[in-house]
Amino acid sequence: MEFSSKLIKDAVEAFCTLPGVGRKTALRMVMHLIQEEEERVLHFTHSVEKLRNEIRFCASCNNVSDGEYCSICLDASRNNQLICVVENFRDVISIESTQQYNGKYFVLGNLLSPLDGIGPEQIPFSQLLAKVEEDEVQELVMALSPNLQGDTTVFYISKLLRDYPVEISGIARGVSFGTELEYTDVFTLGKAISKRLPVKKYIDNI
Question: What is the pLDDT of residues 69-114, one digit of tens each?
């Protein structure tokens, strides 16, 4: 793809760095910005710049946040003793969209995957244990993607918490094995959350 303008070429290459965006799609985006009103383009670029410079991670649960604590952790109406453990903030968004959960969250950031060099030291397990103890958590819902990495992480956490008076449950297996949680439809995910099961029932089969 040849360009008569280096500015367009650079902008297309920048958009191509986004996941799932090819050169043709990137070119359409660039052409749209060129033809768009200047005020809208400035608002777009300012929003992206502000996002990159000011986004934070919640000091309590590691979810994305505008301040020290995210809006979910600051919501006093939510059950502080019910924690849903997820891999990333996209999973939080997915579960929230089901409107089937009223507890709080803990974002791991990664799943255990020794082949990819991700071991326990790369995941904030100690922070999770401290949260369980400090908040006197009664139940941990393991809402991790149902694949080998997710099940390995659930197994590891259950071992860490074996001496804690906390129930560990997992989302129902209506979510297919090998499926990424963020791509699961809202209805299926909502049912899986509301019909969660004790983790021991499926850890024994790993």
Answer: 999 999 999 999 999 999 999 999 999 998 989 999 999 999 999 8
| This prediction's pTM | 0.76
- The ranges of the chain with pLDDT < 50 are none
110 exposure class (CB count in 10 Å sphere: 0-12, 13-18, 19+): middle
- Torsion, Cα 102 110 180 161, to 10 degrees, reads -50
Strand 197-198, strand 167-170: pairing: antiparallel
Domain residues of the chain, as ranges? 6-54, 64-203
CA triple 141-72-99, angle to 5 deg: 60
The two three-digit tokens of residue 125, written as one number: 């397990």
Side chain identity, residue 124: P
Pairing state between β 79-86 and 103-107: parallel
Residue 108 tokens read as 């791991």
What tokens appear for 22 in the block?
Answer: 């090819």
Q: What one-letter code names the amino acid at 144?
A: L
Give domain 6-54's CATH architecture: Orthogonal Bundle (1.10)
Bridge-based pairing of strands 103-107 and 139-142 is unpaired
